[in-house]
Amino acid sequence: MCGIIGYTGTKNSVPFLLQGLRALEYRGYDSAGVAVQINGGINTVKAKGRIDNLEEKINSSEIKTDGTCGIGHTRWATHGAPSDINSHPHRAPSLALIHNGIIENYAEIEEMLSAEGYTFVSETDTEAAAKLIDYYFVRLGDPVKAIFEATDVIRGSYAFGVIFDSYPDTIYSIRKDSPLIVASTEEGGFIASDIPAILSHTSSYYQLEEGIVAIIGKNNVSFVDRKGNESSQTRLTIDWNVEQAQKGGFPHFMIKEIHEEPEAIRKTVSTRIGEDGLPDFGIRELDIVRLSKFKNIHIVACGTAMHAGLIGKNIIEKIARVPVNVDIASEFRYRDPILSKDDLVILLSQSGETADTLAALRHAKSKGVYTLSIVNVIGSSVAREADSVLYTWAGPEISVASTKAYSVQCALLYLFAVQLARACGKLSDAFAKELCRKLTEEVPEAISKTLELSKEIKNASRHYLASEHLFFIGRGIDSALCSEASLKLKEISYIHCEAYAAGELKHGTISLITDGIPVVALMTEEFLAEKVISGIREVKSRGANVLAITTKEIAEKYAIPADKIISVPEVDEFFAPFLLATVVQLFAYHIAAGRGCDVDKPRNLAKSVTVE
Ligand code: AGP
């Protein structure tokens, strides 16, 4: 996610741009920039780091930026590490452009444009879009036609803001998948990724429809379709304050980020599947020839990321039959792990700055083992220092409790497992394609349907608001999911939780089960259902209150002796853990919110633990 803003009016545009960018920093904050029309040309100032760095650079720069029409961008890097040169706006001879989204075919576009004499200075996908619009503008002489021609070629997601040096006081915009709003006020015309950027100027705006070009002038806005016909857009009014707007109307970032999971998985996985419908990570060592050389896999991480590793272990061993060891990063280097040159070490980290994970990475590299990192923050230390990196494109995760990052880490581990299973001859291409299709299409869709259970989960959560202890039990992959469910609940509600393999309870811990103790049983694998049900009977006979979270199929086929059953929408059992993960995240959220806890900033915790 990135934040884009534009203003054209009678006043200096830069204050409007900076204020808008600050309101959009929750969408991305690793670098920022502005471009302003000045005396028939366009000046740009860009800076790595937060908006304050940009403002400082603007104020100290010789470059004039006191024009009345400009665009601004705050970046969440997806292609190319955070740097001045990779920051937006990106230039082309006749224009400047800002972009939120991912251009999937940017390499092909660059190749075509290079043959036409264009050169590229950044590592981003966006620069290709800027020069492609320029390419058509030079030939067609019309900004709107150039934008439509270019977006016919572009594959991917985008919200563009474009200013042309020969069209003063005017901003052009178009979108596909990424959000963009347009507003016209007495102060002038605005474009923005999201409402917070314009809320201090107006509460009325247009939600730009896909495939329509918005033409924003000082005194009015107009909309045209592909045929050049006027298009009417719906004018909307918002009554949120700025803080509510940054959370998209949700009361907390955590619940907003849980709702972003379907899109985050779709964006992260779909761009790692080739034209043939099979995994394509774009990393030489992960192609099916080289991948088969890895005889042992070590997944190393902390907290929620480590719990994603437990899911990965289960899936990789299930379909690829390659041994996987999951290590807590803070233990890894101190236990002198047995590593060999044929091993692969995978580091999972949302922030990419967790000190324990970084230290584990360095230890693995010192032993000559190949390291792959799966990271959400582009250009972060774990991403940079690993031999290769697979970025999760979940967008900024603001809430301390990790949710969408966990889900996309699991999604990439599933895709990795499919590729490894192919490499080891355990999976046919036909079946691999089917799994890829389900992961890209059915899983996000089923998660969206699962999110509709939020009200039911909130009602169920009321029963636990006064609880002091709670147990999560499950078998197989659900035992791994219990670890994450337990961490999620305890870290934001402060209820003491434990995760237990359901078959292990009777070996001691069941002594803690007394009247009314809450137990949550997770069940996605039908072949284990009867075993888990006997575990439920065991704790019930000691007075436990049991909530079972399971699949529609299991709920219909078995008489589960629980006090309450929540069943998730229909999905291939292999992918059911994604849906239960969303449920337990919502469960934790509603309990913590119901207990009046500081959901996004729990006591004692930091979003990234950069100390050992
Ligand atoms: C997750 O909810 C926690 N905030 C914490 O366990 C986190 O997952 C852990 O610190 C690892 O962080 P990372 O993914 O940024 O490396």
Written description of the protein model:
This protein has 612 residues and is an alpha/beta fold. Helices cover 37% and strands 22% of the residues. The chain contains 20 helices and 24 strands. An eight-stranded antiparallel β-sheet has the order 3-2-4-1-10-9-11-14, with helices on one face. Helix 3 (106-115) crosses helix 4 and helix 16 (454-461) crosses helix 20 (576-594). The mean pLDDT is 95. The protein binds 2-deoxy-2-amino glucitol-6-phosphate (AGP). Residues 302-305, 349-351, 354, 357, 400-402, 491, 608-609 line the site of 2-deoxy-2-amino glucitol-6-phosphate.
As laid out across the biggest beta sheet, the strand order is: 3-2-4-1-10-9-11-14
Number of helices: 20
Gross morphology is globular
The averaged pLDDT comes out at 95
Strand content: 15-25%
Tell me roughly what share of residues is in helical segments.
25-40%
Oligomer class: single chain
Overview in brief:
This protein is α/β, with parallel strands linked by helices and about 600 residues long.
Relevant terms:
6-stranded antiparallel beta sheet, 612 residues, single chain, 24 strands, 8-stranded antiparallel beta sheet, binds 2-deoxy-2-amino glucitol-6-phosphate, alpha/beta
